[in-house]
Amino acid sequence: MALAQQSSPHARRARSTSNVMLWVMLAALPGLLAQVLFFGWGNLINVVWCIVLAIGAEAAMLSLRKRPVMFFLRDNTAAVTGLLLGLSLPPLAPFWVSAVAVLAAIILAKQLYGGLGSNPFNPAMVGYALVLISFPVAMTTNWAEPGLLWDSTPGFLETLQIIASGQQTAVDAFTMATPLDYYKHNISSQTATEVLQHPAFGDGIARGWEWVNAGFLAGGLVLLWLRIITWHIPVSVLAGLAMMSLAFGSNADLYTPVSIHLLAGGTMLGAFFIATDPVSAATSHQGKLIYGAGIGVLVYLIRTWGAYPDAVAFGVLLMNFAVPFIDYYTPPRTYGHHKARRGLPGKNQG
Amino acid sequence: MTQLWDFSGGIHPDENKHLSTTRPIDTSSLPDRLILPLQQHIGVPAEACVAVGDRVLKGQVVATVPDTVGVPVHASTSGTIEAISMHPVPHPSGMSDLCITLVPDGLDEWTNRDAIADYHSMNRDTILERIRHFGVAGLGGAGFPTNIKLRPPKDRKVNTLILNGAECEPYITADDMTMRERADEIVSGLRIIAWILRPERCVIAIEDNKPEAIEAVKKATENTQTEVVVIPTKYPSGGEKQLIQILTGMEVPSGGIPADIGVMCQNTGTAIAVSRAIHQGEPLISRVVTITGRAVTNPGTYDVLLGTPIEHLLAQAGLDRRQLDRLILGGPMMGYTLETPDIPVVKTTNCVIAATAEELPAPPPEQPCIRCGMCAEACPMELLPQQLFWHSKAGELEKAEHLNLFDCIECGACSYVCPSSIPLVQYYRAAKGEIRVQQAEHLKADRARERFEARQARLEREQQEKEQRKKDRAKAAAEAQAKKQTEAEKAEAEGQPADDRAAKSTLVEEALARKRAKAEAAATKTTNDAAQPEAAPPDIDALEKQLSQATAKLNTMQSMLEDAQAENADNVEKLERAVAKNHDRVERAEKALAEARN
């Protein structure tokens, strides 16, 4: 009988990409749970809708590109992209806004660049940024009013109806400006205490949002514990954002305080689940720190002085641009070498 | 407590060592044939110094190496040399090489063994030469001759001597069992090595997953200055560079050797071989090998004569052929698969894994790299495996080299953790191979260019010299021409055409025509001889005329040739041929005339 011929190593750890992606999805559940609890069924409906659409678009593109469809679908990466969009889009955003975002993410940002592993930009954030710029009204007025699931928010069928109706703006009674949005636009005319009277902030830091962020933080810690991600990117994103906030906006009567920056909006989701997308992030530890810090700084700059209330998508995309550059200049020092070999071959040999 | 450092990365694969540590080291039975490869390590192969049919004794030298970079081959038992021929040898390519086949006679009769009673009183070089002569080579890695390793460059003092008992790779237990059962011999060998090197510190490093070995070695080193250091289990802690980092916190410089930082590592088995060479006068003819895997019913460690076919060992361990899927020589991380079990145990053979398909399943198909970075987290050399892969696959070898591809020790940690099941090490090996080929070609091209440039320079020089000669000749020719001109004018005045080529060529034509006619006539004459007995008398007048014509022509041709030679014209050769031809013609004409006159 012929003996199997194989190149070493012969043993391998039984952790596959599809496994990794599955864990990412599971780790996002606490955050999703908090979203449903405080903002109604919208996010869950979005998540399901986005995942179905993402898998469909991925399958269609793979088939058009003549790639083995089932082999690639099994890696679960399309589902993760769908999930991330479903988690970040406004809960009551009309179905076609999510559809445009998902299709742009999978078709434009991922498959047209060569599929898994070849995309320079985070697909989910390309989709998100596209709809944010294209449909600013739908993207800013469809944030659900925070409230416990069983109290005031619309029921499941009602939510489904709102999303499926395709109306640009949902019923006013169900929506409310996000804490980041409200603070930014009202702090110029009010004091911090006055601003914080608004129901969006509740008794804590940002009603509902604080739990959503705590949920994603918890999920992110699970990913860290499983060693699916390293601490470098999340910590540097949060540190970059917090340092900027403390350095430039410590006066709560003029600027959004650091607590709201960290615990409202998409901060934790961005830091642990979006910025850590390995395909479009920097490679080395040092590179990851620079990349993450860049995102944190950009998020602060855009949130504070830009036109948008939140900025995770722009922060991530802008730093995606910088990744090849960062990678060239941040290789680790290899064992037995005095210093790292930075830059391109032929220059600066070390 | 000795201070320990950590190396970056590393993995914790399933150890599977318990399979082969349940029983003590077993002595392998005598096989029908022993196969002794002549090429044992890098360098020139040994040359057989026995002939087919010779009877050899156990420990007798059967092959020697011409220079000192190599160790001889010894007969592992007494018997008869059956063949010196090509046989599959342990090599990843599955290649064959020249081997001596020894048929044991079962007597196991030793050649003379002369032990050294007190090596301390002897010269270190004598001991080193003995180590070489007794075939001692590294039992751990590439089988490098131990005597050379023990003689580091003069400017490199070995301060720390490390005996590597880490044995970090899964499945392998040869060192573990050796340390458990032969700790005294190991320590005695270490003493000899330490006596040669005179280090300040002597360390035996053992991973903490081998408590029995640790205890045995600690006992054997009681009341000595040798430190027994227990290191945390983490693959590849037994890699030379990693072990040095763990024990000293220092890094071996890239492209350098441990002696550059005053460190040397030796294998435990090598220490035993040194001890036996000195204290027992026995050459290295056996070693401990782990035979394991779930396709053998009775896995364990065996004391094996070098040259024993692996097939024989597998049979002893109870190989279930139907279960066998993959046969690995070495460990599951760095070992290579065998195409046939009909290859011999050599000095570096530490483990054979007969694996079932469930035990080490074929890897799933390769998926795209998602740059998750798990490989970089696992890499003990602090490389960026994902970038190396990217560049290797894209053929950007320069970039791969820039990211220190050649510092990769091919430990396999990156491939082990890769969730996309990418055979990373295979890509690196291929890229390294390609770069080596390119470098060789580059070197070849450089040499060719140097040769070409040298040739161009020579040709130019010759051309210049030639031109110089030509100028000189032209000058001489001009003078000669002038002289001749005056002579020709003189001759013309006397009414003789000096150089009328056209006239001459007509003359040649005529002469040829006549000659042809004559030949025909002669032929007719011969055929008609019987019919016409009276032969026509040779025309002496005609012959005389022919001779004078030919002579005249020869003279003109010769003068033409001389002119041509003087001018270095391109028709010299042609003229030379013509002169020779005319010369022949003159001779023939003279002969014919002489005959006719008789």
If helices are DSSP runs of H or I spanning 4 or more residues, what is the number of helices of chain A?
Answer: 17
Structural class of the secondary elements of chain B? alpha/beta
Structurally, how many domains make up the residues of chain B?
A: 3
Number of helical segments with 4 or more residues of chain B: 16
User: Which of globular, elongated, flat, extended, rod-shaped describes the shape of chain A?
Assistant: globular
- Overall mean pLDDT of chain A: 90
Q: Strand share of the residues of chain B? A: 5-15%
Give the percentage of residues in beta strands of chain A.
Answer: under 5%
- Report low-confidence residues of chain B grouped into runs of 5 or more: 530-534
Radius of gyration of chain A, taken over Cα atoms and rounded to an integer in Å: 21 Å
Number of strands of chain B: 17
Percent of residues of chain B in helical segments? 40-55%
Q: What is the averaged pLDDT score of chain B?
A: 88
Secondary-structure element string of chain A? HHHHHHHHHHHHHHHHH
N/C terminus separation of chain A = 51 Å
Largest interface: A-B, 44 and 75 residues
**Could you please say which CATH topology of the largest domain in chain B applies here?**
Rossmann fold
Largest sheet of chain A: none
Assembly state: heterodimer
Structural class of chain A: mainly alpha
